Amino acid sequence: MWEFSVGLYMINIWPESLLYAAIYGAVESASIAVLGPIIGRWVDKLSCVKVLKLWLVTQNLSFVVAGASVVALLIHSSLKFTHFSIFILLVLIINLCGGIGVLSTLAGTILIEREWLLVISEGQPPELLTKMNSVTRRIDLTCKLLAPVVTGFIISFVSLRASAITFALWNTVTVWVEYWLFTSVYNGIPALAQSSQRRMARLSQCEQEMNNKTLEEDSLLPVTDDSSKLEDRKCRKTISEKISEVPYIAAWRVYLQQEVVLPGLALALLFFTVLSFGTLMTATLEWERIPAYVIGIARGISAVIGIVATVLYPGLHSQISTVRTGLWSIWSQWICLLPCVAAIWIQNGFLSSYILMGSVAISRLGLWMFDLSVLQQMQDLVSESDRLLVGGIQNSLQSLMDLLAYVMGIIISDPRDFWKLTLLSFLSVTLAAFIYSNHAYHVRKHLFHFDQLLWGKCFVRKSILSLEG
Q1: In the Cβ-directed half-sphere of 52, how many Cα atoms lie within 13 Å?
Q2: Residue 123 carries which DSSP code?
Q3: Three-state secondary structure call for residue 366
Q4: Which residues contact residue 178 at a Cβ distance below 8 angstroms, ignoring those fewer than 6 apart?
Q5: Cβ pair 419, 45 in contact under 8 A
Q6: Would you list the domain boundaries of the chain?
Q7: Gap between the Cα atoms of 257 and 280, Å rounded
Q8: Using CB atoms within 10 A as the burial measure, which of 72, 121, 267, 305 is most buried?
Q9: For the segment 336-374, what is each residue's pLDDT rounded down to a tens digit?
Q10: Measuring CA to CA, which residue among 362, 370, 365, 196 is closest to residue 268?
Q11: Measuring CA to CA, which residue among 35, 62, 88, 10 is closest to residue 395?
Q12: Is CATH 1.20.1250.20 what the domain over 2-210+243-448 is classified as, yes or no?
């Protein structure tokens, strides 16, 4: 709900500019880009129950406060002229709460996708993990289908203020349902508690080994009469070790050593885009006078296509492998986005807007299959001890690209120049497709089965000759 509505709120709070929508998106993305690795390490160090409590309380509370601040701005729309300092304060609260909300959501996403699904599927046929990934993404996309449609109708046929009030009340009520559902799963599957206990024990053992190693190295340092030299050597050694052990640097070092760096980078580049029914595209469509309920329906259609992708993915994966599924899906997304580029040269604003919405919606088929492909490669190839950390870094990298897209939105804030953002987004998808193709080539040593294509040509030629004979 919030993801869809916030762009509409911002463009109404300050019409004729994408600046406030872009600033909000930049703050939200920067929060994950900067703190994502820390969140991954934090989730790794806490028990599942503590993560669940902190995640759900901070997520829902922050969004309730953000919703209340929006209501205040919409009721007192003249604040930006009469009390500008209060107006800015409320905008800052919205941005701060949005940042906290997405960070807590990230913690939950890492826990569920990078640990729970893998633990539940342990000892089961490999196809189960593929199906569980698809079903989990289907649940997510179903929410992306229902929320914008409902919110769009509330905005169009009641008011923006009513949608913000509905949003705040919804989060107040659902936090209890969410907690009950997650704890039911946790208590019903003992393997989840056992995995959490193993993780706690492993972290405790690692800390103990690091302490012992430090004591041993200190005891082996040569003892000389010049105590100042000894202290200098220890100081230099300590500084270098401390730099390498800074959680942020250490986390990135672990990520860069993984086999899935290129797929992760390709997926992240897909976030450097405004072609996603996100804040900037939604605000631009609102500026083009496209009704909110139409935008909500279009976003809902894109979610339906995404759900179709989660249904198709397991079957395609079983036929052509994870890596090839990713290759096919990212290039299909690229092809589906070509009409967005063509729409740049159409002078009719309404027509170009509808082409834009249709093209972006259809491209979700390739996007979500590619997302599932990269997720499964990370689940299969990243060791258990690094899963949560790598998940945090991956989300951080994606948010960094998302942040760059919003920075471009701040620089190019005139809705009339949205075509420039469209072109940059398309180029980013093109680069991602080439990077993943490079990864697929190195893994499989080829991109296409040319031998099968040649065999097919020979078969056709023989068939024609037999018919002529």
Answers
A1: 21
A2: T
A3: helix
A4: 56, 60
A5: no
A6: 2-210+243-448
A7: 35
A8: 267
A9: 999 999 998 887 778 899 999 999 999 999 999 999 999
A10: 370
A11: 35
A12: yes
